Amino acid sequence: MKGKIERQEVIQQILRTYGAVDRLDVVCLTVRFHVGPEVIAEDIRRAEQALQQQAVAQQREALAREERQAELARARQILRGGA
């Protein structure tokens, strides 16, 4: 189980840095982790999905922060009597 998590972390790091995992990366990963290319391909698919979910979550957080800032600005304006 630890090896699987480590593989996925390495793959996510490669994806963040280079945006894709090329054939040479797959060969190196299969040698490093002693698994077949089909296992690496599945890990790549899962890592890409995880990164996409993280990106969506970050976008939602940013939108929520912006909305909260707008609400606070409106509240300040109302408190100052400029409604």
Distance between the termini: 59 Å
Radius of gyration: 21 Å
Largest sheet: none
Question: Percent range for helical residues?
Answer: over 70%
What form results from the Cα inertia axes?
rod-shaped
**Count of discrete domains:** 1
Overall mean pLDDT: 92
Low-confidence stretches: none
Strand runs, count = 0
What is the element string, with H for helices and E for strands? HHH
Structural class: mainly alpha
How large a portion of the residues is in β-strands, by DSSP E? under 5%
Number of helices: 3
Describe the model:
By secondary structure, the chain is mostly helical. The chain has one domain (2-79). Helix content is 86%, strand content 0%. The protein contains 3 helices and no strands. The chain starts with a helix and ends with a helix. The model has no long low-confidence stretch (mean pLDDT 92).
Brief characterization of the structure:
The protein contains 3 helices and no strands. The protein is mainly α and 83 residues long.
Set out the fold topology.
Layout: H1 2-18, H2 23-33, H3 37-79
